[in-house]
Amino acid sequence: MGNQIVTFSEEQLNAYQDCTFFNRKDILRVFGRFKELSPDTIPMKMTTKDATGLKIPLQLLEKLPEFKENPFHQRIFQVFSADNSGNLTFDEFLDMFSIFSDSAPRELKASYAFKIYDYDNDKSLGKTDLDKTLECLTRNELTEKEREIIVNKVLEEGDFDHKGKLSYVEFEYIISRDPEFLNTFHIRI
Ligand SMILES: [Ca+2]
Ligand SMILES: [Ca+2]
């Protein structure tokens, strides 16, 4: 077996280790997950161009068992894709697993949670964002009225500048009191 195909060069692996919370074994395991989603389009040897150019479409990503049960999965894929399409390159896919891993610090998870909950991408969590987030977190078990009461309560507690929405700092305050908001941010590969 002298001709074993090397997926990433030493240089690529070192770069990945530097910018993720993974060691090389983890990185190759994540690559295995990436490739098995689309074996025909993802080559065994990945150049830098492949890793940043070849994408796996959202419909295939939705089959990942780690994310299937996560009510935010579609939104998560969108946030990690550079063009917001939800289609992911390997680099983006690796980033996503890295931030969901146990080794990622809580503050980093919180910053991504904020992006994921910020459905209209205006860098704050308004009533509509909070309502949608709550709907997802509670898996549609609350009525619209019940959600409205909770959203108002959250704003009452955290909207310190009375702008009717949560800034990132205000959001951090809320999640420090209610860790439930971050529960969806742990996934093991
Ligand atoms: Ca928003
Ligand atoms: Ca505010």
TrEMBL record:
<protein>
    <submittedName>
        <fullName>Calcium and integrin-binding family member 2-like</fullName>
    </submittedName>
</protein>
<dbReference type="GO" id="GO:0007229">
    <property type="term" value="P:integrin-mediated signaling pathway"/>
</dbReference>
<dbReference type="InterPro" id="IPR011992">
    <property type="entry name" value="EF-hand-dom_pair"/>
</dbReference>
<dbReference type="GO" id="GO:0055074">
    <property type="term" value="P:calcium ion homeostasis"/>
</dbReference>
<dbReference type="GO" id="GO:0005509">
    <property type="term" value="F:calcium ion binding"/>
</dbReference>
<dbReference type="GO" id="GO:0000287">
    <property type="term" value="F:magnesium ion binding"/>
</dbReference>
<dbReference type="Pfam" id="PF13499">
    <property type="entry name" value="EF-hand_7"/>
</dbReference>
<dbReference type="InterPro" id="IPR051433">
    <property type="entry name" value="CIBP"/>
</dbReference>
<dbReference type="InterPro" id="IPR002048">
    <property type="entry name" value="EF_hand_dom"/>
</dbReference>
<dbReference type="InterPro" id="IPR018247">
    <property type="entry name" value="EF_Hand_1_Ca_BS"/>
</dbReference>
